Amino acid sequence: MWFVILTRQDYFYFSGNLKVDNRTLQQAFNAVFHNKESFSEFCSLEQRKHIVEFLYRGRKVYKTSAQYKHYLRFLEKVVLRHLATNANVVHSYIKGKSALTAVTTHSENSAFFLTDIKSFFPNITELNVKHVLNRDKNLVPISDFEHFIPYLAKIMTWDDSIPAGFPTSPQLSNGFLFDFDNALYDFCKTNELTYTRYSDDIIISGKYKDKLLCLKDTVQDLLHNYASKNFFINNEKTRITHAGNKVKILGLIITPKGRVTIDSKYKRTIESLLHFYTNDRSRYNDLLQNEFDGKEHSLFGLLHYAKATDPAYLEKLQRKYGLLALRQLMEDRWNGSR
């Protein structure tokens, strides 16, 4: 096992906080790997030796070698973080944004259109990746980047798609939808609607339900015109809902008062466990076994999820069950082994 140590200069280079003269791809590679890896070997990868394909719950899943994964992470940091994205729209795979921010953006509206893109990653092809890299080649601070585009597109895809599990796939997917995001954002702005996207999930909201009725056809047309003819929205998951109903988006709830919180089923689980934790440890252990196979760390994660999503709800729990109980259950006793 080895660790990559970034110098202060390298840190600023890769974080994008300081403008520096463009390096060659090899210079960037050596700056990150400090001669622990060979650039010539990186440029002559035999993918089949580094990728294992297997089925998980009926889906193809890919496991890469540690070396290959290091290479892909290098490309994610040095190349893909510079791809163009619409910052007003995209909330996935971006520091400081999350499902929570994607949903909170809509909290003051009362009507919601929800859909997602079928087979999102599998329908982004090697040719699509080349298109994105060529489109944004002037944004990437690598002087000879254009020379490597065909090869980089090849090693960031497998079986002519961007596989789920490749470190490069999330940023590539965001970059690929840049033109679509812009077109749909402009349409929504013109029609006084709000649009956010979290990976393949599309969320559009407004004050009035009637403005959402045509969106199914509009979104589909824009996907074909600005992304790919292979992209189709998922009709089974497409729906329109409104305040007064249970508005559940990306696993979060928007209350009638416009507050974003966690689902009531999670609240029931948390409150039942906290009740027994403070009153009857034997029944607490039984319920913990039933809900989480006895793994208290799952409750730890759920409590921190509640804290990040709805701090006011956590304060309510502290008042009801005691600050000490919450502190004990939210303390990380796993020494980073999560």
TrEMBL record:
<dbReference type="InterPro" id="IPR000123">
    <property type="entry name" value="Reverse_transcriptase_msDNA"/>
</dbReference>
<dbReference type="Pfam" id="PF00078">
    <property type="entry name" value="RVT_1"/>
</dbReference>
<keyword id="KW-0695">RNA-directed DNA polymerase</keyword>
<comment type="similarity">
    <text>Belongs to the bacterial reverse transcriptase family.</text>
</comment>
<keyword id="KW-0548">Nucleotidyltransferase</keyword>
<keyword id="KW-0051">Antiviral defense</keyword>
<keyword id="KW-0460">Magnesium</keyword>
<dbReference type="GO" id="GO:0051607">
    <property type="term" value="P:defense response to virus"/>
</dbReference>
<feature type="domain" description="Reverse transcriptase">
    <location>
        <begin position="1"/>
        <end position="254"/>
    </location>
</feature>
<keyword id="KW-0479">Metal-binding</keyword>
<dbReference type="GO" id="GO:0046872">
    <property type="term" value="F:metal ion binding"/>
</dbReference>
<keyword id="KW-0808">Transferase</keyword>
<dbReference type="InterPro" id="IPR051083">
    <property type="entry name" value="GrpII_Intron_Splice-Mob/Def"/>
</dbReference>
<dbReference type="InterPro" id="IPR000477">
    <property type="entry name" value="RT_dom"/>
</dbReference>
<dbReference type="InterPro" id="IPR043502">
    <property type="entry name" value="DNA/RNA_pol_sf"/>
</dbReference>
<dbReference type="GO" id="GO:0003964">
    <property type="term" value="F:RNA-directed DNA polymerase activity"/>
</dbReference>
<dbReference type="GO" id="GO:0003723">
    <property type="term" value="F:RNA binding"/>
</dbReference>
<dbReference type="InterPro" id="IPR043128">
    <property type="entry name" value="Rev_trsase/Diguanyl_cyclase"/>
</dbReference>
<protein>
    <recommendedName>
        <fullName>RNA-directed DNA polymerase</fullName>
        <ecNumber>2.7.7.49</ecNumber>
    </recommendedName>
</protein>
